[in-house]
TrEMBL record:
It catalyses: (3E,5Z,8Z,11Z,14Z)-eicosapentaenoyl-CoA = (2E,4E,8Z,11Z,14Z)-eicosapentaenoyl-CoA; (3E,5Z)-octadienoyl-CoA = (2E,4E)-octadienoyl-CoA. It comes from the Eukaryota. Belongs to the enoyl-CoA hydratase/isomerase family. Pfam families: ECH_1 (PF00378). It is found in: Peroxisome. This is Delta(3,5)-Delta(2,4)-dienoyl-CoA isomerase, mitochondrial.
C-alpha cells in the first residue's frame, strides 16, 4: 500500500478518467497470495474496503482448480464481514486474466466420472454448477464489487466481471468471450449476464459467436465498463477513490440498493416495486436515514457520519 500525490485535475481528460482528489492512495500489487489462499491476495487498502487480487501473475492469472473454490470461500467470508462495505477486484501482473487454465482443468472437465452416460452427465452437470457458483457468489455478496481490468480479460474473466457491480478498465484493456474457440459454449455466466449488462443482443451475439476482441473504447461505448483510465496506476487509484465514496454511505442503504437492483434486473417493474416496498418496510426503521438527512441539511459530506456496522 502506498500513497501518491497527484496534481488536481479535471475528472475527465480526453475521454480518460483520472483521480480528482489532491491525494489518492493507490493499491500496489501484493508480493504473494494471502493464506489460506493460493490464487488470491487479500488486503485492506482503506477503512471498510477489501481488495481481492487475482494472484497467479506467472500464469497470467489463469483460473486453475484452486481458484474456483477459493473465490467462493473468499466472497462468502466477505459477505459476512461487518468491517467490509465494498470490494475492489483486480489482477496482479501484466494482465487481468487469461481465463481458464486449460492444462490444469482438463482432467476435471474432459474426464468426468460415472458408470454410464446418465451418471457421467449427472456428475458433469454438478461440476458445471459448482463452477458457476464461483462467480454467482460475487453477485450474491451484498457488498458492492468494483472490478478493475487492465490488459487482457479473456473467457472466464468476462464471466467474472459481468457478475460485478461496477466495471473499470485501462485504455489498453481488451475483452474476449473465447469459449467458441475452444469448442464449447460459455457456461459459467457470460451468456446469461452479458446481455443484461450491455443491452444489445446483436453485440452480444457478435462477441460470443466470433470470439473477437472488444477494446476499451468499444467496451465504454457499449456500457460494459463505466470508466476508462490511462494506465493501471490511475485505474487503481480511481477504483479506491470510488470505493471510499461507496464505503462512506450507510451500509443499509448501499447493500439494500445492490440487492434491489439485482432483483429488479430479473423481475418485472411491478414485481420490483412490490419487493422494494416490502424491503423498506423494515429497512426505513434505521437511524441512518435521520443521520444522512441531518448531514445533507448541514451540507456535510457522508464521510462525516459514523454509521454503525451491518
Amino acid at each position: 500500500m502506498l500513497s501518491v500525490i497527484v496534481r488536481s485535475t479535471l475528472t475527465k481528460y480526453r475521454g480518460l478518467w483520472v483521480p480528482s482528489q489532491f491525494v489518492v492512495r493507490a493499491m500496489s500489487s501484493s508480493a504473494a497470495p494471502t493464506s489460506p489462499y493460493t490464487t488470491l491476495a487479500i488486503s485492506h487498502p482503506a477503512e471498510s474496503v477489501t481488495h481481492v487480487e487475482l494472484h497467479r501473475p506467472e500464469k497470467r492469472n489463469a483460473m486453475n482448480k484452486a481458484f474456483w473454490s477459493e473465490m467462493v470461500d473468499c466472497f462468502n467470508e466477505i459477505a459476512g464481514d461487518p468491517d467490509c462495505r465494498v470490494v475492489v477486484v483486480s489482477g496482479a501482473g501484466k494482465i487481468f486474466t487469461a481465463g481458464i487454465d486449460l492444462m490444469d482443468m482438463a482432467s476435471d472437465v474432459l474426464q468426468p466420472q460415472g458408470d454410464d452416460t446418465a451418471r457421467v452427465s449427472w456428475n458433469l452437470r454438478q461440476k458445471i454448477a459448482k463452477y458457476q457458483e464461483t462467480f454467482s457468489v460475487i453477485e450474491k455478496c451484498p457488498k458492492p464489487v468494483v472490478v478493475a481490468v487492465h490488459g487482457a480479460c479473456v473467457g472466464g474473466g468476462v464471466d467474472l466481471i459481468t457478475a460485478c457491480d461496477i466495471r473499470l478498465c485501462t485504455q489498453d484493456a481488451w475483452f474476449q468471450v473465447k469459449e467458441v474457440d475452444i469448442g464449447l459454449a460459455a457456461d459459467v455466466g457470460t451468456l446469461q449476464r452479458l446481455p443484461k449488462v450491455i443491452g444489445s443482443s446483436s453485440l452480444v451475439n457478435d462477441l460470443a459467436l466470433t470470439a473477437r476482441k472488444m477494446y476499451a473504447d468499444e467496451a465504454k461505448s457499449s456500457g460494459l465498463v463505466s470508466r476508462v483510465f490511462a494506465d493501471k496506476e490511475a485505474m487503481m487509484a480511481g477504483a479506491l477513490e470510488m470505493a471510499d465514496e461507496i464505503a462512506a454511505r450507510s451500509p443499509i442503504a448501499v447493500q439494500g440498493t445492490k440487492i434491489n437492483l439485482i432483483y429488479a434486473r430479473d423481475h418485472s417493474v411491478a414485481e420490483g416495486l412490490d419487493y422494494m416496498a416490502t424491503w423498506n418496510m423494515s429497512m426505513l426503521q434505521t437511524q441512518d436515514v435521520m443521520k444522512s438527512a441531518q448531514a445533507a441539511m448541514e451540507k456535510k459530506s457522508p464521510k462525516t457520519i459514523a454509521f454503525s456496522k451491518l
